[in-house]
Amino acid sequence: MAPLILEPTAMASWHRLVTEAAARADVELDEERESYLVFLLMRYLRCPELVRAVLALEFLETLNEPSWRLRAQGLQTVGDRCLLLAGLFPEQARRRRVGPGYFVDLGRSAYDGAAELNAGSASDLLAALAAGFVALADTLQAAREADESHLVDALEAADQAIATGSGEARRRLRRVTRATLVAGSDRRH
Q1: Per the domain annotation, does 15 fall within a domain?
Q2: What pTM does this model have?
Q3: How many CA atoms lie within 13 A of 160 on its CB side?
């Protein structure tokens, strides 16, 4: 087990995790994609429903969105979620009875679609995310292996708490993150 290194801020900790994971995965990330991964991890750690999302349905619903701006945002969100699932939770493909490339293909398509709807640097970034999707997922996979107890346990605990109402899963979630499940997040009813 690697020694625990405390950083002065949460962002610095996530940055260290991403840079070290990229090095272990032998992936060269430019500053923009590195920053994107850091903020993606920070944003979605507070999103326990990630592993329960039906992304193909979200993708199709987003394509029917009349506003190009909302369509672009929705496609980027689907791409983000696919990237996290492909990198941090690749076993979700098997659980959902889809092939190992499912999240990769769907995520690339979502980022490509969002790139087409955007202009300038946003379009360039989204196109780079689509083109480098596998390398980014490899980086997240290396991060998972380096610190599996923190990255994976939070979302798995949240998923278990939502699915079963488990108090222990809620306590596990509180131990690894400040995220709290709110009323209405129980999908059993």
Answers
A1: yes
A2: 0.74
A3: 14
